[in-house]
Design goal:
By secondary structure, the chain is of the alpha+beta class. Helices cover 20% and strands 22% of the residues. It has an eight-stranded mixed beta sheet with strand order 1-5-6-4-3-14-13-2. It has a six-stranded mixed beta sheet with strand order 7-8-9-10-12-11. α3 packs parallel to α5. The longest helix is centred in the middle third of the chain and has 26 residues, at 173-198. The protein is globular and about 50 Å long. The N and C termini lie far apart (42 Å). Its cofactor is Mg(2+); Mn(2+). This is Exodeoxyribonuclease III.
């Protein structure tokens, strides 16, 4: 249970790069170079549980430069240390829920949460203490990295039928909450992107958006059209935040219009073994940074017994960038 209404934690440790060990299993697209940096987005579905399953070993083996983590689901006092990384985190005020963090090799120049820097979009104020959004300005490259855990929604009231849903009908409450978030966050995201560019920084949004954007991001996309996360309004929102001069879906840019890669599989049944899943984890970047993406890797474990979470880490390697920004 959280000890305080809100915990915003930041730990700085002396940066050191652990030796690279073989990754257990990876789905790789593209070709990485030497002068590059690596960004991971990973919904750990509870950092304490993930650490018991081997998160620390994965972190050492992967040796990423930046790791954006969602669903910490623990108070700040139990977050622990991550050797070799500086940790910026907002664990939120809801016990056992949400929480985001960004691990970096050097302490960030600046850290912003919705507690320290309240969102200007009014519709986000109800979410401000929930631990869903965190921004860091990197010290070693001109990039702002934002970590997002977007609320999971539900079906609108008129589509809910008792006995055909995993959850009990709620009159569309979760659906409406998510839609409020989406509407307001689109405005907030645009402001933050422009602010980063005006400061001479590229902008990268990494996180679990709880939305699969295209039919290539869901195994059974026809069936998914009536499910939360692939509803027409969810996908229309995703369309609206992307654009040649706004944000680029980095994974899709590298992978092209081909099925996958996937990043989430249900714990139940044979979904993981049969690779029946979704890609709800994303990295969206300003155009110049997106063009620097040279490799996409999904660290999918070889067997269900090895899973760290119901998500797999989404890893993107970028060529190093110089100061300047893409321009607002």
């Amino acid at each position: 249970m959280c000890e305080a209404p809100i915990d915003v934690a930041r730990r700085d440790v002396r940066p050191r790069r652990p030796a690279l060990l073989p990754i257990r299993h990876s789905v790789v697209v593209g070709s990485a170079g030497i002068d590059s940096f690596t960004v991971v987005s990973f919904n750990v579905n509870g950092i304490r549980a993930a650490r018991r399953r081997g998160f620390d070993r994965w972190l050492t083996e992967r040796s990423a430069d930046i790791v954006a983590i969602q669903e910490l689901r623990c108070p700040a006092g139990e977050l622990g240390d991550f050797p070799g990384y500086s940790v910026a985190a907002d664990v939120g005020s809801v016990a056992g829920r949400n929480g985001v963090a960004v691990l970096t090799r050097l302490p960030p120049v600046a850290v912003r949460t919705w507690v320290t820097h309240p969102p200007r979009a009014r519709g986000l104020r109800e979410f401000a203490t929930h631990g869903r959004y965190l921004e860091v300005d990197l010290a070693d490259r001109p990039v702002t990295v934002a970590c997002l855990y977007l609320p999971k929604g539900g079906l609108p009231a008129e589509r809910q039928r008792r006995g055909t849903m995993r959850d009990q009908p709620d009159g569309g409450a979760k659906y409406e909450r998510k839609q409020r978030f989406l509407t307001s966050f689109a405005r907030e995201l645009n402001r933050n992107r422009v602010a980063a560019l005006r400061a001479g920084r590229e902008f990268l949004l990494a996180g679990d958006l709880n939305i699969a954007h295209t039919q290539h991001d869901v195994t059974n996309w026809r069936a998914a059209r009536t499910m939360d996360g692939f509803l027409p309004e969810d996908r229309d929102w995703f369309d609206a935040i992307l654009g040649r001069r706004r944000l680029i879906d980095v994974v899709r840019r590298v992978h092209g219009d081909h099925a996958g890669p996937l990043t989430w599989w249900s714990w139940a049944g044979q979904s993981f073994t049969k690779d029946v899943g979704w890609r709800v984890d994303h990295q969206l970047a300003t155009p110049d940074l997106a063009r620097r993406a040279i490799e996409v890797v999904v660290d999918k474990e070889p067997s269900p017994a090895d899973r760290l979470s119901d998500h797999a880490p989404l890893v993107v390697t970028y060529r190093e960038c110089a100061a300047g920004g893409s321009g607002p």
